[in-house]
Amino acid sequence: MRKRGIVMDYLPWIIIALVVLTILVIGIALSKDRGIAAIDMIKNLFKSGGH
User: Structural domain boundaries of the chain?
Assistant: First the structure.
């Protein structure tokens, strides 16, 4: 069995996911004052998307 091949297939996606998570965490930490407004904006996007 080549388990290393399976890991190598998913490695780029894992790295991309970690980078995106890091950017999101840093962005939320930097915008704590606007954090609640950003959450409300995202909720409104999902609510209006169904119409």
Answer: 3-49
Integer angstrom CA distances of residue 13 from 6, 7, 20, 24, 41: 12, 10, 10, 16, 28
Residue 5: pLDDT above 80? no
Q: What is the DSSP letter of 2?
A: -
Residue among 16, 13, 38 at smallest CA distance from 27: 38
Q: Which residues contact 31 (CB under 8 A, 6 or more apart)?
A: 38
Say whether pTM exceeds 0.85.
no
Is the dihedral angle over the CA atoms 41, 43, 13, 32 positive or is it negative?
Answer: positive
